[in-house]
Hints:
The complex is a heterotrimer. By secondary structure, chain A is mostly helical. Chain A is about 70% helix and about 5% strand. Chain A has one domain: ABC transporter involved in vitamin B12 uptake, BtuC (Orthogonal Bundle). Chain A is built from 16 helices and 2 strands. Chain A is globular, with a radius of gyration of 22 Å. In chain B, helix 3 packs antiparallel against helix 4, helix 10 runs parallel beside helix 12 and helix 11 runs antiparallel to helix 12. The radius of gyration of chain B is 19 Å and the shape is globular. Chain C is an alpha/beta fold. Chain C folds into 2 domains: about 230 residues, 3-Layer(aba) Sandwich (Rossmann fold); about 260 residues, P-loop containing nucleotide triphosphate hydrolases (Rossmann fold, 3-Layer(aba) Sandwich), CATH 3.40.50. In chain C, strand 7, helix 6 and strand 8 form a beta-alpha-beta unit. The C terminus of chain C is likely disordered. Classes of the chains: A mainly alpha, B mainly alpha, C alpha/beta. At the A-B interface, helix 7, helix 14 and helix 16 of A face helix 3, helix 4, helix 10 and helix 12 of B.
Amino acid sequence: MFRLEKRPQPSRVFAYLTPVLAVIATMFAGGLLFAALGKNPVEAIRTIFWDPLFGEFAFYYRPQLLVKGGPLILIAIGLSLGFRAGIWNIGAEGQYIVGAICGAAVALAFYPLDAWYIFPLMILAGALGGMLWAMIPALLKVKFGTNEILVSLMLVYVAENLLASMALGLLKNPEGHGFPGSRNLKEYPSAYNEPILVLDRIPEPDTCSGISGLFECARSGSYNVVADFSSGMHWGVLTAFIAVIFAYVLLNRHMLGFSIRLTGEAPRAARFSGVSPTRIILFCLGISGMMAGLAGMFEVSGPSGQVSIDFNVGYGFTAIIVAFLGRLHPIGILLAGLLMALTYIGGEIAQGNLGLPSAAIQLFQGMLLFFLLAVDMLTNYRIRLVKREAA
Amino acid sequence: MDLSSITPALLLASLMVAATPILLAGIGELVVERAGVLNLGVEGMMITGAIFGFAATIETGSPLVGFAAAAAGGALLSLLFALLTQIALANQVASGLALTLFGLGLSSLLGQDYVGLKPTPTPSFNIPLLSDIPFLGHVLFSHDLMVYFGLGLVAAVWALLKYSRAGLILRAVGENHDAAHALGYKVVRIRILAIMFGGACAGLGGSYISLIRVPQWTEGMTSGAGWIALALVVFASWKPGRVLLGAWLFGGVTVLQLNLQAAGLAIPVEYLSMSPYLITILVLVIMSADKSRAPASLGRIFHASG
Amino acid sequence: MTGTLLSIRGLTKAYPGVVANDSVSFDIGAGEIHALLGENGAGKSTLVKMIYGLVKPDSGAMQMRGAAFAPPEPRAARAAGVAMVFQHFSLFDALDVSENIALGMEDPPPLRDLAARIRTVSEEYGLPLDPYRTVGGLSAGERQRVEIIRCLLQDPKLLIMDEPTSVLTPQEVGILFETLNKLRDEGTSILYISHKLEEIRTLCDTATILRLGKNVGTCDPRETTARQMAEMMVGSELQTPKGAGGTPGAVMLDVSGLSLPAPTKFGTALKNVHLRLHAGEVLGIGGVAGNGQDELLAALSGEIRASRDAIRLKGQDIGHLGPTARRQRGLLAAPEERLGHAAAPDMSLTENALLTGAVREGLTTNGFLRWGKARDFAETIIKTFDVRTPGPDNAARSLSGGNLQKFVIGREVLQRPEVLVVNQPTWGVDASAAAAIRQALLDLAGNGTAVLVISQDLDELMEVADHFAALNEGRLSDTRHTGDLTIEEIGLMMGGAHDGMEVAHVQA
């Protein structure tokens, strides 16, 4: 028998240790799962966690870490602010979609105009779109006390239908031979979220050796190749890093961040302190929607390239795991986002090499959140073994 | 557009069918919430029930075994949630979300080999004599057993909560877990049982979709039904009778929009498909004015100290 | 009396860092009212929980009528004839009276029969109660009746009552004592827990006194003076706070026609509250719990906004302002609930200093936090008010009740308020901390601050307040000079007889 005993105050050690414990436990349980699927568990775990970083093709996969991690981190940072305050925006997937639609719509409205201001306008539209979508649950909560969890989630399904309608209707590529989906923004330079080259980290494929060679490749039209083999940095990733710094400063150095934390820790004390719950709700939902919208916009104008029915791949939901795995701390989220990106990439490799089903990776990510929540109590409670007393 | 293809009797009959999954999941979640626990993992438990039920039916050829397997699968998954929230004292909102994400992954993994198959059809159960009544007979008395089971379950839950001692204790635990503990009731044990009941109901609801309503297996096929079931409990102000009413309302909206799609209404399909979700939001807004009915300990962590 | 009912031998229970009960032994006679006396934290609750089966002793044993008695759970204790009236935490607001009572019984009859029995028993013992009313809507006194009747329906041999009079008006206390005496005459033993000495001297046959978890003596309270018992309980002589005796100055706070709807379903609406508070004055507001104390504090602190001119501070309308703006203007407050309202449990003391100190102590610049300054402020509070803690980085919940309360009061006092409103400043606090807090409030008033003390502890109010008013169902009585009041008048004010004429009439 054991019993839980509340610690007089949260343990610092376990605050850092629990995510690590959760990852290790997940690897074990995941190994068992993979073994049950008839795969070699050690090989599977190595393929997922080691190969993308240090394997033969690591030069290709490492930049992918940023491409996949960027949106996860950006969305998770936004969500974490709300979660800190006890405001549960779980509709980031919807805000991500709407941000993408708005950003792409601006681009397509200007097509084929060549102007410097188009991309900034797209950023603005994406941010606004996501924010407004998140303002629906925010305003309903403020005005009527409606549960934001359910409303924000319902709006994901609405957004998915909206996306389908856009891909099939309003934003459909007029030159697309009837196929669903918009024009590809990668082919529209003014709207393309182009990779930011970090030159000293670029590997050198045969045809594009040397810096001049790279630029030559870029000019000669094999741009995508260069993009994929580059650093993985694009404006969205940069924005994600800025968001991390912003959230860090906000939470640790600013009164607003303090108010957010206070609202989550003790709502009545926050009210007594003078924090307006309305403002916190509007701010947290607004900013998380904005960040999700931005992530969607950078994705549609970059790695994805077009508005299509299957544009969204669940970043908005995975970001919830990322936020918790990072213990709602900006730096933690940065690391957790990269780790989660690793499981995506490693999962894809394992799918190709070992025939591991993609659903297994999804399950693996779900397990991670489970284990994290299970060991999280160690921060606030300690376990004591007690002998069962004779009744 | 041809609205004449929509016949009222058929519409009402299919409303009963469309309402059943969320009715089952909703009544289960109602019991969980009346015990003071907020389990947001309904969607995950439904989809797990859907694949468990589907797979078991395919393997054994018996829908009855399928439904039993679905209930067991849902309850098993909910046990994970129970362990997290009742033993490890984890946050209920986060744990519920984890359950949903986990359930979605698990179901699509399990379901890989079952895509495209057809399950053994569940026999319809025409109640003798009653089903021959014109109109009403078709609407009310010629359904499969699960429809009646759902209705019976609502009645049973209502009676148990209102009249039985077990129901009184369950409500007491949900109202004030500290007081219930002080009186010597096993708060954690009661809640775990409630959570598992909710899981079983959600599993049944999910399997109703994959075995009867659709009937086949596709990934993510519950498409938000679990979340609508959660909204249903709020809509119902935690009263069993109103869960039934709400389920029929949502069922009606779903059936109506499907019929309008089929009738070729001038509105694009996507906008019609949005309507159940939009209606849910609308209903939530209307109902959220009255918060007083929610069990007072809902979502709060219970830790017996000293 | 027919010998010993329950004999307690060497009960010991330790929690991490504290020995709650250290080898406690005493006997409860059959048909006696036995007082268990002790300060907050003396170990009364733990002892009672062991008798009721909620907590298992580490060592020691109990005997009930000579047979071994070690209830593993409350159910077993109830089966053995032990019943308990809790101080709080044991009623279900949303359920009705008969449902609440059924939950506390092993084998309740059908609800309809139970309702009939509730009516009979409640009338027999002079505690009228409607079995079909929802408990959330009952007054504190009525709620206590529910608990008592729940116990009586089980025909208990031993009835445990935990601080039963803290929620009653003096008149209601009289009725309760009659009931308890009647029960004793019928042969029921009563274990009566309290720290109010006069009550114990009126009611009890025997008293056992606990200090720091140890039994420090058993006495006959009728033969022992209150002073002797107090010294046994506290262990040393206590200083009584000294008022500064300054003359009241100008009107600082003027509340007129303050009305607010009930903020929650079972809350209390404020109805046309009027009061005036002068510089250098301590105004005490008494009343039984749940008569609008929390709501009045929230309305004054700014947590709930009122109409613009309902509250005036130094002649300025502030009713519409929030807590921050009011603090800026010199109106500070400290709510009753320490953990979760006055302080955030999991946050450090530095962060909790920031919670109300940001504006007046200049702990931010352009919204950015000055952690160093906040830490200094926290350290000043800790030092000035003798808060026992390793340092300002410790979480608020790691402090004992008394220390946290000193921190919370100190935090407001050190911000040099012009008006300070406190609710239950010494609730659940040990005697030395309570004395320190009361002294701090008096010193503050001596320096010209207008102080409003809301409290359910009449002794405390009589000790610190110059003027007294009482809250009843959200209405505030007229303000009276403390020195002119008799205990009967106070009781009537608390009971809602607000008109001075009416008081005189009743007395006549």
